[in-house]
Design brief:
Layout lengths: L12 H20 L19 H7 L4 E4 L2 E4 L2 E3 L2 E5 L9 H11 L3 E5 L2 H4 L14 H10 L3 E5 L31 H18 L10 E5 L11 H15 L4 E7 L2 H7 L6 E6 L6 H9 L10 E6 L15 H12 L4 E8 L10 E3 L6 E3 L19 H11 L19 E4 L1 E5 H7 L6 E3 L14 E8 L6 E4 L3 E2 L1 E7 L9 E7 L6 E3 L8 E8 L15 E2 L4 E2 L2 E2 L3 E6 L19 H4 L13 E9 L8 E4 L6 E5 L2 E6 L8 E4 L7 E9 L8 E5 L16
Parallel strand pairs: 4-5, 4-11, 5-6, 6-7, 7-8, 8-9, 9-10, 10-11
Antiparallel strand pairs: 1-2, 2-3, 12-13, 14-34, 15-28, 16-27, 17-23, 17-27, 18-22, 18-25, 19-24, 20-21, 20-23, 25-26, 28-33, 29-32, 29-34, 30-31, 30-33
Helix pairs in contact: 6-7, 10-11
Length: 694
Amino acid sequence: MAMTSRRSWPSTGRQTRHQLAFVLLLVLVAVGIYVPVLALPSLSLPPEIPGDDEKMIMMPRKFYIKDDSFWKDGNHFQIIGGDLHYFRVLPEYWEDRLLRAKALGLNTIQVYVPWNLHEPKPGKMVFEGIGDLVSFLKLCDKLDFLVMLRAGPYICGEWDLGGFPAWLLSVKPRLQLRTSDPAYLKLVERWWDVLLPKVFPLLYSNGGPVIMVQIENEYGSYGNDKAYLRKLVSMARGHLGDDIIVYTTDGGTKETLEKGTVPVDDVYSAVDFTTGDDPWPIFELQKKFNAPGRSPPLSSEFYTGWLTHWGEKIAKTDAEFTATSLEKILSRNGSAVLYMVHGGTNFGFYNGANTGSEESDYKPDLTSYDYDAPIKESGDIDNPKFQALQRVIKKYNVASHSIIPSNKQRKAYGLIKMQMTTSLIDLVSMTDPADVIISANPISMESAGQMFGFLLYESSYIAKKSGNILRIPKVHDRAQVFVSCLSQDVGVLRYIGTTERWNNQPVSVPTIECTTNTSLFILVENMGRVNYGPYIFDEKGILSSVYLDGQILHGWKMIPIPLHNLNQEPNLSFEMQHTKKRSEKFNLTNDVGQKEPALFAGEFSINTEEEIKDTYVSFNGWGKGIAFVNEFNIGRYWPSVGPQCNLYVPAPLLKPGKNTLVIFELESPHLELLLEAVDQEDFVCGSYDSKVNQ
């Protein structure tokens, strides 16, 4: 693709006056060819004090590396930055969170670009709403932040599939992600042909905030394909030019740096390492992977906290220990980027996951991405970690700090009475028959075009009087099994068991008397794709044959459950009304066989605009599911496993009057069908000994 026109942002009227004067001068000189020089009138302009535009003309803006240091417009520069992800914060709160980062003393924001958010379907590019990257970068510039842009195409970041679009997994022949596979690189190039021209006008040399652009992320922990890395550098340079600093980030060991760095002089290699490690031997090692004089010490991921998976105790790190570790870097003129300065929220279905040594050792991330960062998920900064880090940073950032904003007010709106509106079987009846796929064997969610959420698999079998044994050798990630005599009792599903990726067990199928074959339904939940490690090619759904009493079961329908993701329009109406007779005869029961997934809806009222505040929805007493506030997907809940009990609801999602809360409950509704809007986070529910990550 041809390189886009390289223009600076518009100049002011003062520069225009100089341009007009210069044109006039040329005219007068031309006339002077025929008129004696002494006859030329004198040309003078009133004296002016040089403004910002004149300074830019006199000295081009430049951010560069020299003498093992960063330099900004001829002056030494120490990066004191922080990661803050626009896609984990509502756009209405971007400025608020950035101002809090400014109050901490930061001068730079580092940010990932998740490919999957911006190209959810092949060729469909989205840069609106929470995906408005350009507006976020311009806001950083307005607030006098520099920006380190992490363009991917792989980002990790505890984000679904490391930022790769899930549809890459459905491409045939199978793509070799993160390699020099031509088919994969062609798709990367198509993506960057859209992304990087948007970035170019925002480069520092063009008047914008972007000083550095990262390719890939921690590649040395994954592969060793130098041709792939060189191709990414070439693509980036083709769009952004030769002046921008292109960089990589890798763990601070010889092995990871040998694999993950690009052996060319114009690519800068940064490092990350465990907080508390002695940074300076690692920075000395870093020099061996940079050209002479081109290795300013930089920890591009200085960890302020850590991530948490479902079934674990919430991660916490000591404030003073973190601050002391940071000072070891800054006190000797090193640079650091806090990962994270503000974590935010994994809204929608975009949370990532990890694995252990085996693919089945699956560990999905929480909805909250608080990360124990100095700026909490809700934006709060009245905490020991913010204060400790601020004390250290103030010693080394001489720029004036902004006024410290106060914590956001929160409000407990109280109990919310829920009612069942749509059962699982009702959802099936609402599905467009054109969206149902029929196949001899189960297919993956990606192959079925259902990239996130849930896919229902339907088949039938002849029941034995003694019962049957169902086995699914490979399911990603969690399968709930139901049986029904649909021909006799329309709309009734009987729950018989659950099998999971991390705890794959056969399911005993009891006998039910059907006049015809018994219908089998398997609801599979995609709980978030692996974002790091060797098992990143993480397809979802039923990925093997299904066995009944040791025999392969053939004849399947794949039925998508139409729940929308972050930054998508709703696929179904979330009205407060019953949709089927099945819902009207719903009764609360402790009978395990009645655990049929269903939509529940409730309302709460806010009287005035002034009463709209941040809040949390408490799911104590409920089972597992996904929640929507005013049709916005606020994420997953699973209080029985924990540790997260409450989901964060930012105030911009709310409105005066009636507000709607809809949940898709998979297991066991609260016996009184009550939810509660409270004013505090809660990370202490669950048993912490769940087998989710064992």
